[in-house]
Amino acid sequence: MDRLGKVDILYMSQLTDTTPEKVIADLGDEIFRDPAKVKDNDPYSGYTESSEYLSGNIRDKLRIARDHAEHIDSSYNKNVEALMKVVPKDLEASEIEVRLGATWLDKKYIEQFMYETFETPRYLRGQIEISYVPYTAKWQVSHKSMVRYNDVAAFTTYGTDRASDDVKEVAKDMAAEQFAELTHQRMPVFEMPNGDILYARYNRDKDTLDVGTATNAGMAVQHHSPYC
Question: Which has the minimum average pLDDT: 144-148, 177-181, 206-210?
Answer without folding.
Answer: 177-181
